[in-house]
Design brief:
Chain A is built from five helices and five strands. With 156 residues, chain A is α+β, with helices and mostly antiparallel strands. In chain B, 33% of the residues lie in helices and 23% in strands. The chains are: A alpha+beta (156), B alpha+beta (294). The complex binds flavin-adenine dinucleotide (FAD) and FE2/S2 (inorganic) cluster (2 copies). The site of one FE2/S2 (inorganic) cluster has 10 residues of chain A, from loops.
């Protein structure tokens, strides 16, 4: 049974038609062609699909599109403002913290929200904040460095 | 495509009564959906295909946590784990519940999962069940016949089974009034950050002016089908000052009541070894919270 759903993604409102069990991740990738959010496990475990819902990081693979009408969704594509990268995005580049890139958008969105709450985090706090995002390439070191770098530059 | 167009119908009522009616109408295959962190994962894996989903997200009453005039705290079923972890209404012994909330999964999942969804699913390794038994909580349930309240101990029947009848939903968790001198502690052992508990221990204690234990409740998670309360150990500790000998003896009584299994997280034998350590850690930590080290 497909039904019309109105979603607000990166400030833009779109009407999509989807089933009751269709996830936000599927709509983002297959309907809205926003493929920055990745499908790793589809079970909530890996974090590759993480997006911000009303500013809070959530799993788009566990979020039903029909259940989040009226909420503001931010994906990695919508994070830069007016074309300018956010400090955490620049820091990820400057720290060479991307290998295959599969985890990167989830890492960035999670870290961005964290840095907004904690502008001067310890390394342990950074690791805890990112503990729900799995990276199979980097060994995490450079990602943690990048978050610390963004914080030291005073940004999120 | 991973999620096919199914015949599921989606409803988002504004009141508990409407939700209950919508569930009843659709029969056994209808399911409420709260955070979705378990239900959507099950649907993605094609393990369940509900005929109707009734979202509880738009029901205001379920999203509130209130401190009531009698000193009890009512946590609405839709409160997210992150909210409960930081809940300012939870003080003294009630912190066994906020402590459990803060150790569930990882930050993004804590933004999604709810207390109602967690206890309704009743994973034997989940964090809330032992904490709610230790806190002597009551579960408020709504169904076609109206509302009822039952103690947490009678709610968890073991291995994903609860006292919920078909068509019923959890509407709130109610924590009884606690004295200011009481404390609560939740200790969890897991393989990696964000995993379910291999074993966990929840305790609430009250003391008199000379630091003697006057009341105590204790429950273990991850070591059987549901939270296991050990009254013999509680009785053994009441009247003590939690001296090491008393705790060691009580831990033996606890271990005798456990019924763990071997699974991917650890062997039954290992669980029986770590529970006494978790108990010790819980008592150490809560004594420290109470009397900051000199
Ligand atoms: C990666 C990951 C790691 C996790 N780690 C932990 C952990 O360490 N510890 C832990 O305790 N939990 C853990 N969880 C579980 C999670 O935190 C939630 O508790 C769980 O997803 C259930 O809550 P929910 O609100 O998402 O429920 P939903 O997924 O919406 O629902 C779960 C089930 O309960 C039913 N239901 C929902 N709400 C109600 C209600 N009010 N009344 C009656 N029935 C209802 C649904 O129909 C469904 O069958 C983890 C989950 C994930 C995805
Ligand atoms: S794809 Fe959503 S958490 Fe892995
Ligand atoms: S860079 Fe490959 S998974 Fe993180």
């Amino acid at each position: 049974m497909s039904q019309p759903v109105t979603l607000t993604v990166n400030g833009k409102t779109s009407d999509v038609s989807c089933g009751a069990t269709t996830t936000l991740l599927t709509v983002l990738r297959d309907t809205l062609a926003l493929t920055g959010s990745k499908r790793g496990c589809n079970q909530g475990v890996c974090g590759a699909c993480t997006v911000l819902v009303d500013g809070a990081p959530m799993r788009s693979c566990l979020t039903l599109a029909a259940n989040i009408e009226g909420q503001n969704i931010t994906t990695i594509e919508g994070l830069p403002e007016g074309g300018d990268l956010k400090p955490i995005q620049q820091a990820i580049i400057d720290s060479d913290a991307v290998q295959c890139g599969f985890c990167t958008s989830g890492m960035i969105l999670t870290a961005h929200e964290f840095l907004q709450r904690n502008s001067n985090p310890s390394i342990d706090e950074i690791r805890t904040a990112l503990s729900g995002n799995i990276c199979r390439c980097s060994g995490y070191r450079k990602i943690v460095d990048a978050v610390a770098l963004a914080a030291s530059r005073g940004g999120a | 495509m991973l999620t096919s167009m199914t015949k599921t119908d989606f409803q988002k009522p504004k009141t508990v009564e409407e939700a209950v009616t919508l569930l009843k109408e659709a029969g056994d295959d209808a399911r409420p959906i709260s955070g979705g962190a378990t239900l959507v994962a099950l649907m993605n894996a094609r393990l369940v295909q509900p005929s109707r989903l009734v979202s509880l997200s738009a029901i205001d009453e379920l999203t509130q946590c209130t401190y009531q005039s009698d000193g009890s705290v009512r946590i609405g079923a839709m409160r997210r784990h992150r909210q409960t972890a930081f809940e300012s209404n939870l003080k003294a012994a009630h912190q066994v519940v906020s402590g459990a909330a803060s150790q569930i999964a990882n930050p993004p999942v804590r933004n999604m999962g709810t207390i109602g969804g967690s206890i309704s699913f009743a994973d034997p390794a989940a964090d809330y069940p032992p904490s709610l038994v230790a806190a002597n909580a009551e579960i408020e349930i709504a169904g076609p016949e109206g509302r009822r309240r039952i103690p947490a101990e009678e709610f968890f029947l073991g291995w994903y089974e609860t006292a919920l009848e078909p068509g019923e939903i959890v509407t709130a968790v109610i924590l009884p009034p606690v004295s200011e001198s009481s404390v609560g502690q939740y200790e969890k052992l897991c393989r990696i950050a964000g995993d379910f508990a291999l074993a966990s221990v929840a305790v609430t204690i009250d003391f008199n002016a000379s630091n003697t234990v006057t009341s105590l409740r204790l429950a273990v998670g991850g070591c059987g089908g549901g939270p296991i309360r050990v009254e013999a150990a509680e009785q053994a500790l009441i009247g003590t000052k939690l001296e090491l000998d008393a705790v060691v003896d009580a831990a033996e009584l606890v271990v005798a009541e456990l019924d763990p299994i071997d699974d991917v997280r650890g062997s039954a034998e290992y669980r029986l070894k770590v529970v006494p350590r978790l108990l010790q850690r819980a008592f150490n930590n809560l004594v420290e919270t109470r009397e900051p080290a000199q």
